[in-house]
Amino acid sequence: MLVEFRPHTRLRGERPADLGASVLPVVNAVSESDADLGKVRVVCDWVQYRNNFRDAVDIRPILRGEPGALPEPIGVRDDDLEIAVDVRRATEAPLGELTATLLRQVPERVVLEGWTRGSQSCVWQFNALYWSALELWEKATGRGYEQALPGGESDARNTAAATELIEELFAVWDRLAATNALPEELYVVELGVGNGNQAKVFLDRFRELDTGHGKGYYGRLHYLMCDYSAHVLDLARETVAEHAERVSLFALDATRPRRSLAFLQYKAFLIYISNVYDNLPTDEVAQLGGRTYCVQTRAYLPAEAAGELATSISATPGQLPELVRKLLRLGPSLLVDACPAHFPDVDSAVRFWQRTWSAVRLEERYVPLAGLDTYPLTEALTGETLRPLLESGADVRMHVNNGAVASFDETLGLLHPYGKLVCHDLFVTDIQGYRTTFRGPGKYDGSVVNWVNGPLLAHVGRRRGFDVHYEPFRHRGGGHIVTMTAQVRD
Ligand SMILES: C[S@@+](CC[C@H](N)C(=O)[O-])C[C@H]1O[C@@H](n2cnc3c(N)ncnc32)[C@H](O)[C@@H]1O
């Protein structure tokens, strides 16, 4: 049996995690079960998100490929299952009992979808619904989305950070202007604009600095605000109303920016993204015991929560999957028209949405990858891109951030040779960081958060001829936010 205790740093400090309480009851339960003890992995994480998709103990089957379908690597471990433990809940949940029950019988659940790669799960439809119907969600909770972000407000509003960016832009433009190489139109793109506060800080500061600088750059500026939520774009438009002449709004999917922004090829001087990559669909892959796996997931509602939820809308648990599908397709307002027997008004539909989201969990299983080249990382990149990271040493399970990689890869092609992409987000900057710390998924209000695989983005950028650089966000101490900068290599 293999026991992996990832949050080892939590074994020290004022309130150390209790190794015995997290591991022993689980190992005892496994040894008393019928499981083949030589084929079990016990993996302990500290799941820092109070709202997440896991139970205190989960069981993940590890599947084998069809016999003969895969070349047999030598000296591999052929595990049957992984038992995943949330160490944070070790003192409050009966881990041994939970493990024994899970090993004895398949728990009752209302399954919301078939097994699929993480990036294809319906949790991403919930995520999109959150942004498109944000107004209804925020009205019901009385909280703005920024309060759920790390630090309780977005670093995008930071004036010092905006000033630094603008001064750098002015320096580049001055140099180009000196050789008559500065284009008339000065493009800045922002992806995932939220309430528009970052754009406002940037534009206010830009106008102010330009007045002092005296080159008239403000009058040539085209600030493109891009988001997939029409509601968010409306909010942002209002926030920057006084800069209306300088701003254009684009409804687009950040994972496919070229579909709308291809006209900007080699023209954008700044592409700015904050707290968006961690909110884009992702798969996870793993290298376990010498084999490579894709993590498949399946969203479900635990039986008890499903029973209560169904009763609250005069339905049966069996009706829930169809009602959830309708909710995700239509949104809460139209759901009232489609299912008046269950939802007398919009408030009841919003309550259903929020309670469902709170109860949603993800089952997981490991499915062998037939070969990295057969795995579609994005439309343009195969899983071969992952090889140096997966083969970086010991076992590892990591995010692929398919949406962020696709977005990054496409936007690099929009940059002016002297342009740069700046992104503030939750980045894992070293693959080892996946071996010690849980990196998501978690829930931020109605949205999904996963940390972003920094080494993977850097690898993709370097292959395209860009320098990709990470540093802790400089303008606020103590947070986890990292700034990524990508620029054409000198
Ligand atoms: C957490 S908010 C960040 C807002 C702002 N940049 C900030 O830092 O405060 C994420 C934003 O990304 C947008 N978003 C999420 N997924 C997107 C996608 N696939 N395409 C376009 N926008 C997306 C959301 O609508 C939302 O405005």
UniProtKB/TrEMBL annotation:
Keyword vocabulary terms for this entry: Methyltransferase, Transferase
What residues form the membrane-spanning segments? none
UniProt cross-references to SUPFAM superfamilies, sorted A to Z = S-adenosyl-L-methionine-dependent methyltransferases
Name one molecular function that GO assigns to this entry: methyltransferase activity
- Any one biological process term the GO annotation gives: methylation
Q: Does the keyword Magnesium apply?
A: no
Per the UniProt record, which EC number(s) apply here?
2.1.-.-
Q: What is this protein called?
A: Class I SAM-dependent methyltransferase
Q: Which organism is it from?
A: Amycolatopsis pigmentata
Top-level taxonomy:
Bacteria, Bacillati, Actinomycetota, Actinomycetes, Pseudonocardiales
